């Protein structure tokens, strides 16, 4: 008998993209799934995709719910309904009909692990990231072929399978400190500290598609650049990520030189782009 799987998909104003992803899942080989669409108050009809499909559901998580809060509302429903496994999935990917079946095969053989698909991008097949040395420099791992499974410290949250019992131990995603960026990374680092690893499988491949309309929701006042939930420069995100990576805030402040410099560089770049494209108001 197939295990019960909930697929959580956050979305905002991308009906065609979301429908393509949803139809791929429904037409897939694994049938014991419930798709929970977490719609951030779309205005293009995205939230109506499941009007005539009782097995699946769409919830309006509100316009103030960014990626992490949207995911958490879906996860909460899945946990209340006692699903065995929960898949976090973005809708801007192309997937095969056997994706869920492949993920579940790996999950049943690695019950104490988070399972990640490899991501086919223009740069190659991305597996995940490891952090090396005392200063935790990030090293992205890529594969040119369908090689063996690889343990990574974090992987992109666009397709992660997480057993329900890991949520019971680790908790949900940190929507307070990481509302839009790094929520997936912070969760995996937190889970790792509790003994749960992430394994990436090169023989399970998803293809990155159109980018999410992220800036469509983002209109910042200049004074909000470090405090707004959707800002890529949110201070709380920077600190929450570092705390989990280094084990404490003090260690991060002392040893996280690479990340502090990167934060300053990103600040300059993001402010320039925002001003040029009028994303400030």
Taking all Cα atoms into account, the compactness measure Rg is 18 Å
Structure classification: alpha/beta
Q: What's the number of extended β-strand segments?
A: 11
**Main beta sheet strand tally, sense and closure:** 11 strands, mixed
Q: Give the N-terminus to C-terminus distance in angstroms.
A: 54 Å
What are the secondary-structure elements, in order, as H or E? Answer: EHEEHEEHEEEEEHHEHHH
Q: Can you tell me the residue ranges where pLDDT is under 50 for at least 5 consecutive residues?
A: none
| Strand residues, percent | 15-25%
What's the rounded overall pLDDT mean? 88
Please estimate the helix content.
25-40%
Count of DSSP H/I helices: 8
User: Looking at the structure, what is the overall shape?
Assistant: globular
What does the model show?
This protein is of the alpha/beta class and 281 residues long. Helices cover 34% and strands 25% of the residues. The protein has helices at 15-26, 67-80, 99-109, 164-170, 183-193, 235-246, 249-255, 257-277, and strands at 5-11, 33-39, 57-60, 85-89, 93-94, 113-121, 124-132, 137-143, 150-152, 159-163, 197-208. Strands 1, 2, 3, 4, 5, 6, 7, 8, 9, 10 and 11 form an 11-stranded mixed β-sheet that branches. Helix 5 (183-193) runs parallel beside helix 6 (235-246). The longest helix is centred in the C-terminal third of the chain and has 21 residues, at 257-277. The chain starts with a strand and ends with a helix. 41% of the residues are buried. The mean pLDDT is 88.
């Amino acid at each position: 008998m197939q295990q019960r799987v909930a697929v959580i998909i956050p979305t905002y104003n991308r009906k065609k993209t979301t429908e393509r992803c949803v139809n791929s899942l429904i037409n897939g080989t694994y049938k014991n799934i419930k798709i929970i669409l977490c719609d951030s108050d779309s205005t293009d009809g995205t939230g109506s995709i499941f009007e005539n499909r009782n097995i699946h559901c769409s919830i309006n998580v509100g316009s103030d719910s960014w990626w992490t809060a949207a995911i958490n509302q879906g996860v909460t429903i899945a946990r209340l309904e006692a699903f065995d496994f929960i898949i976090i999935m973005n809708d801007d990917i192309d997937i095969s009909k056997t994706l869920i079946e492949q993920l579940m095969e790996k999950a049943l053989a690695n019950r104490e692990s988070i399972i990640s698909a490899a991501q086919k991008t223009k740069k190659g097949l991305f597996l995940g990231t490891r952090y090396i040395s005392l200063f935790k420099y990030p090293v992205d791992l890529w594969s040119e072929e369908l090689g063996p499974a690889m343990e990574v410290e974090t992987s992109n949250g666009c397709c992660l399978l997480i057993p329900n019992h890991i949520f019971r131990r680790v908790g949900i995603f940190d929507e307070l400190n990481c509302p839009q960026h790094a929520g997936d990374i912070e969760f995996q680092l937190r889970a790792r500290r509790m003994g749960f690893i992430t394994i990436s499988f090169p023989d399970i491949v998803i293809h990155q598609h159109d980018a999410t309309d992220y800036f469509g929701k983002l209109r910042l006042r200049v004074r909000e650049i470090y405090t707004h939930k959707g800002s890529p420069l949110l201070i709380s995100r920077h600190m929450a990520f570092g705390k989990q990576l280094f084990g404490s805030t003090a260690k991060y402040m002392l040893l996280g030189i690479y990340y502090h410099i990167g934060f300053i560089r990103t600040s300059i770049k993001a402010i320039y782009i925002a001003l040029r494209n009028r994303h400030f108001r």
